Amino acid sequence: MHKVKNLAILIILIMGLSLAGPLFDASAGPLAQTSPTLGDAESYSVLGGESVTNTGSTTMPGDLGVSPGSSVTGFPPGTVGGTIHAGDADAAAAQADNTAAFGTLDQGCTQDYGAVTQDLAGLSLSPGVYCADAFTLTANLTLSGSGVWIFKSDSTLITSSESSVTGGDPCNVWWRVVSSATLGTDSSFIGNILADTSISLNTGATLDGRAFARTGSVTLDNNIITGNACLPPAPTATAPPAPTATAPPAPTAPSTTPVVGLPDTGGAPIRNNIDRPWSLVIVGGFTAIALALGVRGYRRSHLPKQ
Amino acid sequence: MPSPFPVLLPSEQPTIQPKVQPTPTVFALGPLIDSDLDLRAGPVDLPLELQIPSLEVIAPVAGVGLTSENLMDGPKGPIDDPIWHTAFWYRGGGVPGEVGTATIAGHVNDPLGRPEIFARLEELRPGDLIIIRYTTSNIDIRFHVDQVKVYSIQESSDPAVLTQIFGAGPVAGTGPQPSPDGLSHLTLITCAGDIVDGRFDRHRVVFATRSE
Predict the structure, then answer these.
(1) Number of structural domains, chain A?
(2) Measured over all CA atoms, what is the biggest interatomic distance in chain B, rounded to whole angstroms?
(3) Does residue A75 sit within a domain?
(4) Nearest Cα residue to A270 out of B195, B80, B77, B84
(5) Which of B36, B123, B200 to mutate to test the interface with A (most CBs of A within 10 A)?
(6) Which of A75, A102, A195, A273 is deepest in the core (most CB within 10 A)?
(7) A86 CB near a chain B CB, below 8 Å?
(8) Minimal Cα–Cα distance from B42 to chain A, Å?
């Protein structure tokens, strides 16, 4: 009797859950989540509100900017693939578009963890809008499938040392953080972080994407920022003048984008030659010997002989 | 090892002055990449290896394109990623060993300041040997250094200077062209000087010509 009753309860539960499943299916919802357009902020890798401060050999492929503040420190030794815009009109326009994108990211949640701090470690998440009071990451998060991911934190995003995010196209992964974001030392992270206050990338953290802080600071420390594929192509510059070298009549050649400059190929300031002190010793030694021989010769020829 | 391809003129053993020969056009070494590959796409693996014996450099070669600012790309990655020890052949330029100009860049150091494959390019002297090995056929293309020059950022934005470095085609936007002198040229590029405004302010360029 009990067995049959329990079995019936089990079957009803299973049926109930399988019916409920499609209700939570994001693809069945009225509107799928969409990536915001970044406009003038699209060419930026890092954007700060008050300041951007760097320590060590940080690199990034795109532009670096601050607005409405104007303080950028640490470049060099940091290197920037694009242009540094410290408090200028370009950075102001980017910050305005960053603010607009922050608003656009406030889309309906497909998975609401509730008013809790949610650790994303060990999860494999398909595209969707994930909401929580705060997010942490203490191990690896896998983004599976393809599409748009939006993570909405009502306060902070904090990842632990050596945590990681794998999978997902960095151009379509978004972290909307109402206060501040911190990436742990030697962690690796994917996506565009838009924080209303500040962003800190701790020592050695790598980010495949962007870091935009609206009002506070972006603090960097020996970080490698990539996300090159998410940057826009440059507006077509004025064509270079025809080369002066006489070229043979060319066969019908495909037209390609002209190259206008040489690559940036280095990771840190170049150290000075350290064997210089030894060459000074050698030169000094020879000079001393030559002087001694000269003095001896002078004495022989000029002093009275005994 | 016998010469792997027919040579049109009797060749002499290179001594101090390697004999520059018109490049045999019996067969082509390229193409190295799919012609559909966009110049904006990221680096691609190539069946090439760069050797600079006097500097003890042996490096794999990747094909690179342009950055969003239309500069030749010099890809970077996390610390200890092999990209730092990789040479970069410009996909918009000529194939190494064919009549024209092939351009290869490499990092001078890594984010920790440790020397990388092109840290000692300044030690190269005229006549020094550079080899491009085609790894699928084991063909070695040998070049000898003509000269080593250093350019400021302003100089290296000058189309006349860029034409010497890349050949006329990539600078004019017409794709790689055979060189007017009928020879096969190779240029190596790396950074030098100081970091100013987030960028190195000088480039060191090695000019070389194919010797056999």
Answers:
(1) 1
(2) 53
(3) yes
(4) B195
(5) B200
(6) A195
(7) no
(8) 8
**In chain A, positions 23-82, which contact chain B (CB-CB < 8 Å)?**
43, 56-59, 61-62, 64, 75-82
The alpha carbon of residue A184 is apart from the nearest alpha carbon of chain B, in Å, by: 15
In one-letter notation, the amino acid at residue A5 is K
Q: How many residues does chain A have?
A: 306
Q: What is the CA radius of gyration of chain A?
A: 30
Question: Is the preceding peptide bond at B24 cis, omega within 30 degrees of 0?
Answer: no
Distance from CA of B49 to the nearest CA of A (A): 18
Interface test with A, best of B33, B70, B123, B166 (most A CBs within 10 A): B70
Spatial distance between the Cα atoms of B51 and A122, rounded to a whole number of angstroms = 44
B66 touches chain A (CB under 8 A): yes
| CA A106/CA B66 separation, integer angstroms | 35
Q: Is residue A286 a part of any domain in this protein?
A: no
How far apart, in Å, are the Cα atoms of A261 and each of B67, B72, B155?
10, 6, 10
3-state secondary structure of B73: coil
- HEC-encoded secondary structure of A2-46: HHHHHHHHHHHHHHHHHHHHHHHCHHHCCCCCCCCCCHHHCCEEE
CB atoms within 10 A of CB B148: 18
Structure-block tokens of residue A32: 């799928």
- Residue B120: closest CA among chain A residues belongs to which residue? A273
Name which of B132, B129, B148, B130 is nearest B140 in CA terms: B132
Q: Which residue of A has its CA nearest to B40?
A: A233
Give me the tens of pLDDT residue by residue for chain A, a chain 306 residues long.
667 777 767 676 666 666 555 544 444 444 688 899 899 999 999 999 999 999 998 989 899 999 999 999 999 888 888 899 999 999 999 999 999 999 999 999 999 999 999 999 999 999 999 999 999 999 999 999 989 999 999 999 999 999 999 998 999 999 999 999 999 999 999 999 999 999 999 999 999 999 999 999 999 999 999 888 788 875 555 555 555 555 455 444 457 899 999 999 999 999 865 444 454 556 556 666 767 676 676 667 666 655
CATH classification (class only), B44-210: mainly beta
Tell me which residue has tokens 């794999």. B60
- A249 assigned to some structural domain: no
Q: Is some CB atom of chain A closer than 8 A to the CB atom of B77?
A: yes
Nearest to B211 by CA among B133, B146, B138, B136: B146
Closest alpha carbon to B60 in B3, B129, B117: B117
CA distance B93 to A109: 49
Q: Which of A245, A262, A268 is opposite residue B71, by nearest beta carbon?
A: A262
Alpha-carbon gap: A261 to the closest alpha carbon of chain B (Å):
5
Tokens of A186: 């030697």
Residue type, A118: Q
Give the Cα separation of B70 and A42 in Å (integer): 17
